[in-house]
Amino acid sequence: MAKKTGKDLFTSDVPKMPEGYYSGDKPNPNLRAFVEAHVKEHPYDPETDKYDIPAFDKPIETTKATAIYNMHIYWSKKPHDAIREYVRHYTLHNDLVLDPFSGSGGTALAALTEGRKAIAIDLSPSAAFITKNYCTPLDFSEFSDEYEKIKHEVQNEVVSLYETRCDRCGGAAATSSTVYSQVFKCPRCLEKIALFDCEESERILASGKSKKINICPSCHKKGITEEISTQGEKFGFIPVLTSYICKSGCKPVRGERLHNDKNEKKRDYFKKYDLSKLQEIERKAIPYWYPTNRMNNAANGQECWGLLWRRGIHKNISTVDNFFTKRSLWVLATLLDKCRKSTLSQELLFLFQSNILSATIMQQYRAVV
After folding, report:
1. Residues 142-156, buried b or exposed e (16+ Cβ, 10 A)?
2. Pairwise CA distance, residues 234 & 189, whole Å
3. pLDDT (tens digit, 9 = 90+) per residue, 148-205?
4. Per residue in 277-301, is it b (16+ CB within 10 Å) or e — as a string?
């Protein structure tokens, strides 16, 4: 038998979901009929039941670093290969597996993969949505065509939002990332300083151990060491650094701090092209719908529990859109509009949602040394 290639896996016949399949935010109207049909096909007699499976007691070697695990984030998710081990041990082929608290659907997916039938239940609409897309077969060819269609439709608008200039050759470039830094006030000179621009130093504690601290650059130039405490009042985030891809192919120096005196040209280009672009975007209204509801759908003036632990870096975030910069929000709203209008809306929304965390302001900058 010829070995299947990766390409063959995407061009083979796509399995169809059985009649009566249902996923939604209301009680499944087909559940009783589904269970009765299963019992009729596989009748159960407690008098002759010989089920006597010993406890699962062998070690499982698995990893979360798999494509299927990383398809969509979900807190508390377990590796699918580990769940499959339990399904194989405790059930037989064609058995019906019930998970009444399904989460992202790992148990249902493992059961279907092992030739079992599955019922997955969860109160969370997000969990039901993720489970449905994990467990529903996908026509990859059709999906790929629709993806390319949307990509073509939004290309000009997205490109215009991220266009900039290369400080090396002066040619056209596309922004690949922008770093934002929180602003604090120096208690000595009262100047507002981006944390990104602070000098790094060390302070010796009473215990004799050293602690890394951030020093006000203005005071430092005067020979004064004044610490900028990150526990102090915050004055919002500002853009401080950008990385880009030059369309002419030259390789600009990336990751350099803009306050470095050796990078005057880079700083000038940043102000002229990157900051001006961001300011232009701020002045315009996003022409697409995006969610503006309060976190946890709390009423105005009501503090919802999810905000209690966000008093630090996220203390000013009260609505969903606050998690994004204006430019990111614009692009996401554009894509969301296209996905919702597509004939493959559920599948595309699953892809859209699975990548959205990387577009939030929660992504941290890690300098390359």
Report:
1. ebeebbeebeeeeee
2. 16
3. 999 999 999 999 999 999 988 889 999 999 999 999 999 999 999 999 889 888 887 7
4. bbeebeeeebebeeeeebbeeeeee
